[in-house]
Amino acid sequence: MSQNPQNIQSVLNETRSFVPSLKATSSVPDMATYEALCAEAVRDEQGFWARLGRENLDWHKPFTQTLDESNAPFYRWYGDGLLNASYNCLDRHVLAGRGDVTAIISESDSGVVTRVTYAELLARVCQMANVLKSLGVQKSDRVIIYMPMSIEGIVAMQACARIGATHSVVFGGFSAKAIHERVIDAGAVLIITADAQTRGGKQLGLKLVVDEALALGGCDTVRHVLVNQRTEQGCDMVVGRDLALEPLLAQQSTDCVPEWVDAEHPLFVLYTSGSTGTPKGVQHSTGGYLMWATQTMKWSFDITAQDVFWCTADIGWITGHTYVCYGPLSCGATQLVFEGIPTYPDASRFWQMIERHRCSIFYTAPTAIRSLIKAADMDEQVHPKKYDLSSLRILGTVGEPINPEAWMWYHKQVGGERCPIMDTFWQTETGGHVITPLPAATPLTPGSCTLPLPGIQAAIVDETGEDVENGQGGLLVIKRPWPSMIRTIWNNPERFKAGYYPEELGGRYYLAGDGAVRHSDTTYFQIMGRIDDVLNVSGHRLGTMEIESALVAHPMVAEAAVVGKPDEVSGEAICAFVVLKSAIPEGEAAVKLANELREWVKHEIGPIAKPKDIRFGDNLPKTRSGKIMRRLLRSIAKDEAITQDTSTLENPAILDQLRTSVV
Ligand code: 6R9
Q1: Which of helix, strand or coil describes residue 194?
Q2: Which value, in Å, is the radius of gyration of the alpha carbons in the chain?
Q3: Residue 453, Cα to own-chain centre: how many angstroms?
Q4: Which residues does 571 contact at the CB level (< 8 Å), separation at least 6?
Q5: CA-proximal residue: ligand 1, atom 15 (nearest)
Q6: What is the DSSP letter of 455?
Q7: Residue limits of the AMP-binding enzyme C-terminal domain (predicted)?
Q8: Which of 149, 448, 547, 639 could form a disulfide with 562 if both were Cys (CB 3.0 to 4.6 A apart)?
Q9: Ligand 1 within 6 A of CB of 154
């Protein structure tokens, strides 16, 4: 495990506690209610989950079985029930007479505000679903969505759900190669994209990246590319394959009967980085997933009809699936959707938008908070205190650990010391929150995600699966299945089983892939970071192997090793150690080559994967058996003194060279 005891000590020494002052509109008004729910989930596991399944969703055919574990770890939830996710997100609110409620307030990069009601959104989703059907897309077909953060992106996802097609959203910042890999692995029949997206005042082409992906070949399953025209930029269209979306929508009816699917039907596959190989397609269900997306909106965010909810995550990530596309809509809430970036036109954009739209629940990533702290320190005008943030009542963070200083700033400067901060720990694989405070109940400690939600049997174990004592670090596991958990890895059930239910732990616990420790007094969980070769850069997951493969694909690179190093803003930064096929360049030439490699990685994976540091060496530190000594590289990346045993190192001289060669 990568964590060190000093780290554990410093976080466990955090003793500040913030007792909730929020008035409870929530179903969990205090700790006693929370504890009663936890006890119910243990005493009557099936009854507890069945109750939540019934309370949160409308079923076309009610389920009679709750959990089926006969083929563990391929668990089935609500298996004989029939439902439709888009019906639950749209129709049921309209049928209940709430069609005039604003579903989405969308703000573009340049500040244009568009509102849609639930009735309008339903009509648009139906038209989109009818377009898909007219192109022959059927239940269970896979559709790739490569769209900006927009109403159109959400409509595309909901339309797939309506006809029972499984969507796979690819983040708009990913490269042609990333799209290509996903199209092939998913066997997609259709791609929905836009000509371009506008972020930070710049127009970035999307369709041309799709063209490049399809030109890589082997994508024979793709019959059409649907193009949403968002800018004046336009794009090239391949006759017969590419279709302009808007004229097709205009021809379609605003009614579309939802396709009733069984609860286990795959709603979506979302690719995420693992420690080895190519990204894996995390497959989620319809019933269990949507139940938890809905329930966690109520528990973690206390969502009500009066709220304006804003989750800043992109629909290309799991947070944008659960807390933009599905959770808020399933709850019939009003939410804000933003296409731009937090620093354009300046770093007060978030605060201005909260003020403008009277946002009451704001959910963002620690990286964004840290970069806005920096900006506010440098320029008074973009400081949150300059704006009226009195509408806020609950704050949230997600994606990476939040350091106590950033937590305190968020609490004081944004939340006016009045709003509880929900530090929500979860993963693409968990579908929704698993360890998080509850706004009216849980006393908060800066930097801790506090306690598991009712029904989530989170624990910390050692490498053999035995529980460790509080105060001791170990592996974070979840001991019992829960409805919104990953069902399998698309096309690769073996990888699912080996990766998440490893034999070493007896094959019975879900292994999260994070190290954690519980506080001895409060029993609060503290996440210590990934235990595998997955980096977390600005809250985005990236496999070191993926970046290494991208680097070695460059004609000048012989070998590469990638590690993370702590970074003030992005949490973790990428540091690449590179061995060239030719002599190491010096001075300007070294900088030029390093920049070329950064551009290369950007092109291969996407801009988020660009290494911050690049160090050229004649070789990499290896053991006599040829293994790269990553622990050593981590110390070098941090400019730390090397305390590890280097006696097994075959080529010790290499260390000095790698230390001094940063570009
Ligand atoms: C939702 C999401 C999952 C990984 C996870 C962990 C880190 C997420 C966190 C957190 C500390 C939190 N992580 N939330 N670490 N505190 N509140 O981010 O999913 O992209 O799959 O990343 O992110 O390391 O394992 P995903």
Answers
A1: strand
A2: 24
A3: 19
A4: 366, 367, 370, 400, 401, 536, 537, 538, 539
A5: 400
A6: T
A7: 546-627
A8: 547
A9: no
**Cα separation of 658 and 663, whole Å?**
11
- The CA 472 to ligand 1 mean position distance, Å, reads 21
76 lines ligand 1 (CB under 6 A): no
**Separation CA 628–CA 439 (nearest Å):** 45
Q: Do 608 and 173 contact (CB within 8 A), yes or no?
A: yes
Ligand 1 atom 26 nearest Cα: 427
Distance between CA atoms of residues 390 and 573, nearest Å: 35
d(Cα 129, Cα 84) in Å, to the nearest integer? 13
Q: Which of 514, 617, 612 is nearest to 568 (CA)?
A: 612
121 CB contacts (<8 Å, ≥6 apart)? 90, 103, 104, 151, 155, 158, 329
Q: Is the pTM of this model over 0.90?
A: yes
Cβ-contact 606, 571 below 8 angstroms: no
First to last CA, the chain: 29
Q: At what angle do helices 45-56 and 31-43 cross, to 10 degrees?
A: 120
Residue 176 has pLDDT above 60, yes or no: yes
The span from the CA of 95 to the CA of 40, in Å, is 33
What are the beta bridge partners of residue 579? 559, 617
What tokens were used for 642? 């090397």
136 by Cβ neighbours in 10 Å (0-12 / 13-18 / 19+) ranks as: exposed
285 in helix, strand or coil? coil
Tell me if 467 sits within 8 A of 459, measured CB to CB.
yes
Residue with the smallest CA separation from ligand 1 atom 12 is 425
Q: Is the CB–ligand 1 distance for residue 449 below 6 Å?
A: yes
- The closest of 604, 608, 609 to 576, measured between CA atoms, is 609
Contact criterion met (CB below 8 Å) for 325 and 152: no
CA atoms within 13 A on the CB side of 631: 14
How does pLDDT run across 41-99, given as a tens digit for each residue?
999 999 999 999 999 999 999 999 999 999 999 999 999 999 999 999 999 999 999 99
With a 6 Å cutoff on the Cβ, whether 426 touches ligand 1 is: yes
Residues written for the chain: 663
Residue with tokens 């024979």, as numbered in its chain: 220
Residue owning the nearest CA to atom 4 of ligand 1: 427
